[in-house]
Amino acid sequence: MSLPNYLTGKEYDDLDEFLAVKAEPLGGIPGLSWLDGFLVAVAVSPEKIDPEEWLAYVWTDGEDDSESPFSSMDDAKYLIGLVMQHYEGIENCLAQNPLLLKPILLEDQDDQELPDLSGWASGFMDGLALRLDQWQELIDSPDHQVLLLPIFLYGTDAGEEELIHEPDFDDPLFMAGELPQTVGAIRDYWREKRANNSDFPEADL
After folding, report:
1. pLDDT class for 58, splitting at 50, 70, 90?
2. Using H for helix, E for strand and C for coil, what is the string for the chain?
């Protein structure tokens, strides 16, 4: 698993361990790849999403009555700080040059030469679901829905079925290489909508 430089290696290890041991059993995001995809979706959302809202999904899938995954206030401050720092790193990268985005992808369990896009794409779909009504315009657009194709194929049950029936579409190495361009194009799509419609929701990017 190749990592971006938003955090140190130890910080990523700490965060990955916490997600697997504490957050996932409570319904939170299971691992760094999933978290990275989720945060990228939040960063390119049609409208700005308050961190308090999306952080709840990271830890406990947004359930208000869920048990806290943190063992102490210091624990919470440290780990929330790491997530926020990673998110800000994504935002800065997208603002400067989306093509430099470095998605966190696991290795395929059957072929370690290939990336496994499922965790990242599933995380993106979870982030998209936070504002599904707004995303629906892009999802339904005949001219632009193709932007979501790599994410749909590897991040949804319907996409998994499509790959079974159309194995020629299953090219994880190519699709992984397309992710930065895909994310940048999605960001630009919402930017254009925002520029041409004063009533369109505000966002950071």
Report:
1. confident
2. CCCCCCCCHHHHHHHHHHHHHHHHHHCCCCCHHHHHHHHHHHHCCCCCCCHHHHHHHHHHCCCCCCCCCCCCHHHHHHHHHHHHHHHHHHHHHHHHCHHHCCCCCEECCCCCCCEECHHHHHHHHHHHHCCHHHHHHHHHCCCCHHHHHHHHHHHCHHHHHHHHHCHHHCCHHHHHHHHHHHHHHHHHHHHHHHHCCCCCCCCCC
